[in-house]
Amino acid sequence: MPSCKFNSVMAILIALTMSLAQAPQAFSADLVPPGNRHAKQPQIPGASTRRTQATNSTFDAKYERIRDLIADDARLRGKIVSVSKLYEIDPIHIVGALVGEHTYNVDAYDRLQTYYVKAISYAGERFQFEHDGESVVEFVERPEFETCKALSGSAKLWGCREEVWEEKFRGRKVAGKSFPDDRFGAVFFQPFYAGQTFGLGQLNPLTALTHTDRVNKVSRLKKLDAGNASEVYKAIMEPDSTLAYMAASIVDSIENYRDIAGFDISENPGLTATLYNIGSSARRAEMLAAENKGRKSRGQKPKLPSENYYGWLVNTHEEELRAIIGR
């Protein structure tokens, strides 16, 4: 090889080596350690307390009931472990969400077959997701949602629609029509009564629609359509599919906090349970990122994500719940 050609090749190799050395490292997030950030349990909402009192029960009794249901049902535990492996998460996250929902929102059912019966009854109903006579399918065709149409993927699409609702419709009067000061999911996706969720995972229909693309890809389940409400309810009522939607929701929260806020919450089930409870993980990750940007500019340490009352319970009982999974 001529000297000049050899020198040119070496120069290219050196340049490539230097550029690779200077390339940004793979994305890494700060690990949030296990356990609670709060020394005492944050305040439990009055609505949850009233629901529990109305059934002559206690939070402790409801916790023990769902804990025992999982502990005594080897088939359910097997399904939780299987779906967690499929979605590449620790099964403690699904168990934590189940425990939180059935402790603070509803009582656990003795037999999972109850959910099958309800699923069949809802599948036979003729209803749609709507508000004041306007279906959600029609509603999202309003010009305010135009920017969302370019987005691909159900999570981004419905996330965008939620943002538009918050910014332009919630509690406002638009085109002569007044809209409630409430969440998008509560206004359009709870046709029977406010605060309604269903199934073993106590899922809101909007949550299922948001994660339908991931569930379709990973679990090979049929994609859901907001225009077919009965199919959405069937998906969230049937135990096997509801576990897949739970897992997809949890994965989404972990990814959002990693990619947006720079925190790895994958080892803290209380945080994933909190986000499962309150929803809107992307928006909350953005808020935390903005807050920490301000703290950094003031020379302060970043604020770690923290659990709510629901996640606090999960972290408090993590050791016991992990022992149940390992049976």
From the structure above, extract its key features.
327 residues, mainly alpha, two-stranded parallel ribbon, two-stranded antiparallel ribbon, 6 strands, 59% helix, disordered N terminus
What does this entry show, briefly?
The protein is 59% helix and 4% strand. Strand 4 and strand 5 form a beta hairpin. It is globular, with a radius of gyration of 23 Å.
Share of residues in helices = 55-70%
Number of E-type strands? 6
Instruction: Label the structural class.
Output: mainly alpha
Outline the low-pLDDT stretches: 1-26, 109-113
CA-based shape: globular
Count of helical segments? 17
Question: How would you characterize the overall build of this protein?
Answer:
The protein is mostly helical. The chain has a domain at 27-122 and 197-204 and 215-220 and 235-325. 59% of the residues lie in helices and 4% in strands. The protein is built from 17 helices and 6 strands. It has helices at 3-22, 46-54, 59-72, 74-86, 92-104, 113-123, 136-139, 154-169, 184-188, 205-210, 212-219, 229-237, 239-261, 269-278, 281-297, 309-316, 318-325, and strands spanning 30-31, 130-131, 134-135, 173-174, 177-178, 263-264. The strands form 3 sheets. It has a two-stranded parallel sheet. The protein has a two-stranded antiparallel ribbon with strand order 2-3. A hairpin with a 2-residue loop joins strand 4 (173-174) and strand 5. Helix 5 (92-104) packs across helix 16, helix 6 (113-123) runs antiparallel to helix 12 (229-237) and helix 14 runs antiparallel to helix 16. The longest helix is centred in the C-terminal third of the chain and has 23 residues, at 239-261. The radius of gyration is 23 Å and the shape is globular. The chain starts with a helix and ends with a helix. Mean pLDDT is 84; it is low at 1-26 and 109-113.
